Amino acid sequence: MPTHRVVLIPGDGIGPEVTNAVKRILAAAQAPLTWEEHHAGLSAIAQGKDVLPDETLEAIVHHRIALKGPCTTPVGQGFASINVQLRKRLNLYAAVRPVRSIPGVKTRYDNVDLVVVRENTEGLYSGVENEIIPGLVMSMKVASEAACVRIAHWAFRYATKRKRKKVTVFHKANIMKMTDGLLLRCAQRINEDEYPNIEYQPLIIDAGCMKLVQDPTQFDVLLMENLYGDVVSDLCAGLVGGLGVVPGANIGDEQAVFEAVHGSAPDIAGKGIANPLALLMSTVMMLNHLADTRHDEACRKVSAKLKDAYNLTLSDGKKTRDLGGELGTEQFADAVIERLKG
Asked: Which of 11, 101, 148, 173 is packed most tightly, with the most Cβ within 10 A?
């Protein structure tokens, strides 16, 4: 079976623990993957390198796919965010966060199944800030028609491929008529001209957040600019159990980086109690991406097996401590592997 070479960034804190657990599960599932390990964050700094070394970036450019554990960017020491650097330097313009109710993880909501699609390169996160005079600063929100068209195309195309029925654009165009208004106009035009099969719904973001917590099942695909997407994707994770049960991806036209979106949790590092589920779920996304972009149906079959196995594991009550269970990191991996074989 042909294999796909994937850049693996283990990360910091609990990163190496959850990464090793996921690698074991993937080996048991006979996933057609081989690994090329590189570093970022504190682990790279400890080797005397930059927080995001050139060789790590070059490997992702070459292999076009990466799996990343949680990395730490040192605070207040002049280091640029690893995630922001990855998105900008690799042009990973679509941040994708599927959010669904998980068997065996009880929350106040049932049957949540939505996807947050976030424009990943512009908005207030462009970091264009100036001091006008002492005591007065300004941050500029950037929006280009090219980026708005690109992310709207991506969202509607994704909805069509995944047999989703509606794209809701969260915005504040009643106040930010030019920037948010541009995304709205682009999304509406693309919907009307190219994807009339998908329902289009514009919704002011404050009303949208209220509706989310009232009944998240009324939403399907959520499209929004950078800052809104950062906030709303974490809000949506809270609907289904938190950041430990949602995957994440940053996707461009050439490269894609799949990651656990939770932090590196240095307070529990080395204790063997971290939950590898989010990284495993991100790997399932990665396998589906490989199936779509490289036409390898073996990846899709393995992806389906893994999803069934971890769903069954959770349904059977085999959970890590953060989800109310008693299993450690490796014990959870063992439980998933057992169900893969069963």
From this structure: 11
Angle between helices 15-28 and 329-341 (to 10 degrees): 10
Q: What is the pLDDT of residues 231-240, one digit of tens each?
A: 999 999 999 9
Q: Specify the pLDDT at position 72.
A: 86
Q: Which of 88, 166, 172, 211 is catalytic?
A: 172
The residue with tokens 């100036």 is: 130
- Mean pLDDT computed over 60-70: 97
The tokens for 137 are 């600063």
**125 classed as catalytic:** yes
Q: How many Å apart are CA 337 and CA 3, to the nearest integer?
A: 21
Residue in 180, 230, 296, 334 annotated catalytic: 230
pTM exceeds 0.85, yes or no: yes
Whether 14 contacts 70, CB under 8 Å: yes
Could you give the angle at the alpha carbon of 268 between the alpha carbons of 267 and 271, nearest 5°?
140
By CB atoms closer than 10 A (0-12, 13-18, 19+), residue 40 is: buried
74 confidence band (pLDDT: 50, 70, 90): confident
Cα separation, 94 vs 138, whole angstroms = 26
Q: Which domains does the chain have, with CATH numbers?
A: 1-95+243-342 (3.40.718.10), 108-240 (3.40.718.10)
